[in-house]
Design brief:
Shape: elongated
Helix content: over 70%
Bound molecules: protoporphyrin IX containing FE
Number of domains: 1
Order of helices and strands: HHHH
Largest sheet: none
Oligomer: single chain
Distance between the termini: 20 Å
Number of helices: 4
Number of strands: 0
Structural class: mainly alpha
Length: 126
């Protein structure tokens, strides 16, 4: 398996671990205030990064590697940076709003890179 897919799987697994620990903490403390941030870390991190890694693994040698690393960088930074910023915003720190906006645009840019990778794979499809 390529290092690109392994990078996606590693980042995704770590997001899943932290996201689940976050969920356990919310359950234990009965404080669910930050649940949207927990949900975004799990879905943008654990689920999306793992799906993207699986896509590049399936492409194997036909994967667009440079674009894949751009995709990885944007999607990973977007997922990891958005979660704490969103949690702080939910806790009443209004100054976090622009950071949440910027990090959500980074995550969105990562998705654009992934869509381009998917479309470019059509050229090499059997
Ligand atoms: C150990 C594992 C997990 C625990 C203990 C946990 C715990 C929680 C808790 C306490 C809430 C707040 C519920 C509420 O106040 O309405 C929540 C919400 C949520 N979690 Fe998790 N979670 C876990 C894993 C996951 C995973 C793996 C995902 C996604 C892949 C996920 C996605 C969500 C979503 C989307 C919500 C928001 C649901 C809503 O709109 O009410 N969670 N979770």
């Amino acid at each position: 398996m390529s290092r690109l897919s392994m990078a996606f799987f590693t980042a995704g697994a770590l997001c899943g671990l932290i996201g689940m620990a976050w969920g356990v903490y919310m359950g234990a403390t009965h404080d669910h205030t930050t649940f949207p941030a927990h949900a975004h870390l799990n879905l943008l991190g654990w689920v999306s990064l793992f799906l993207m890694g699986g896509f590049y693994a399936l492409l194997g040698d036909r994967a667009p590697v440079k674009l894949g690393w751009v995709n990885f960088s944007l999607s990973t930074v977007g997922a990891i940076a958005m979660a704490p910023a969103l949690a702080l915003l939910l806790k009443g720190n209004a100054g976090m709003e622009p950071i949440v906006g910027i990090t959500s645009l980074i995550a969105f840019a990562g998705m654009i890179a992934f869509v381009i990778a998917v479309l470019s794979a059509w050229r090499r499809a059997a």
